[in-house]
C-alpha cells in the first residue's frame, strides 16, 4: 500500500465552523445546530482520519489536527464551538497514545487570531443569528454576543498574518521531532498558559474584564 507522509485535518463549513459564526448562548442555539457543528468540527476529522490511517501506517506518517485556542478555554457564547474543539483535543491525545507504538505521530495546532476574510464573514453571520434570537434570549444574551463578536473581530484584524500561520502549520508537519502542540499567535500562547495557572474563577474575571471595552 502506498503511504502518505502527513494528514492535515481542519473544519470548513459555510455557516458554523468558525467560532464567531456559532456565537450563541447555549440556551439560544438550537440542538440541530449543535449537532451540525459537531458533525463538521469533530466527526468530520474522525471520518477522514479513519479513512486514511491505513496509508499513514504504511508510511509511518503524521496527523496534524487543526484545533483552536477555543479547545483550551471556552468563552461565553462559544459553548458549542468550544465543545467540538475540546473534544478534538481529547481525540488527538488518545490517537497520539494509540498510534505512537506504531510509528504514527499526532500533532495539534491551536491557532488564536489569524487575519483572514473568514473572521469578517463570521462576524456578519453571528450578528445575523443574534438578531434572530427570541426577545427573551436577546434580552439575556444580546449584549454578550455583541461584545464577544466585536472582541473577536478586533483580535482578528490584529492577528497573525495567514502566511505566518501557514508556516507554523507546515513546521508542525515537517519538524523531525515535533512538539505535541503548537500555538499560533501571542494570544493563543498567553491563553493556554493562563488556563494552566489560574483558578477558574480568576480566569472568569480576566475574560469578563477583557470584554468590557467591547460592551
From TrEMBL:
The residues forming the signal peptide are: none
What PROSITE patterns has UniProt attached to this entry? ADH_SHORT
Example GO molecular function = oxidoreductase activity
Provide a GO biological process annotation. steroid metabolic process
- Extract the Gene3D superfamilies matched here: NAD(P)-binding Rossmann-like Domain
Q: Which PANTHER family match?
A: 3BETA-HYDROXYSTEROID DEHYDROGENASE DHS-16 (PTHR43313:SF1), SHORT-CHAIN DEHYDROGENASE/REDUCTASE FAMILY 9C (PTHR43313)
Say which family it is in.
Belongs to the short-chain dehydrogenases/reductases (SDR) family.
- What is the official name of this protein in its record? NAD(P)-dependent dehydrogenase (Short-subunit alcohol dehydrogenase family)
According to its UniProt entry, this protein's organism is Amycolatopsis endophytica
Taxonomic classification = Bacteria, Bacillati, Actinomycetota, Actinomycetes, Pseudonocardiales
